[in-house]
Amino acid sequence: MPPLRDSRYLPAGVMQTDYDELVLPIREPFRFEARSDNCLHQVVTGDTLETLAELFLSNAQRSWIIADFQPESILDTTEELAVGTYLIIPSIEYVNAKILGSVEGAAAEL
Length: 110
Fold this sequence. Notes:
31% of the residues lie in helices and 11% in strands. The protein has 110 residues and is of the alpha+beta class. A two-stranded antiparallel ribbon has the order 1-2. Strands 3-4 form a two-stranded antiparallel ribbon. β1 and β2 (22-23) form a beta hairpin. The N and C termini lie close together (10 Å).
């Protein structure tokens, strides 16, 4: 089964082993890009990557985009966010054009 449309693994594709098993390859995360339309968000009590993705990117399943987009990527997306720290959120326009655009292109190739 291929990765879902909003999956962080979609651009990486799916590999087939010599034993006909489908596996996900190691994926290269999207990287931080300094842009004038980025939003700087200070974490408050109750914030999670999912709630911030819903708020800023209109979909909680896109929390991986926020995790990847940090100058130092957040590797464990289940870890609680430290109150008072800052996260850089890419604009929805950038996400749709640059990140999800490449995801949709990868989906078309599957």
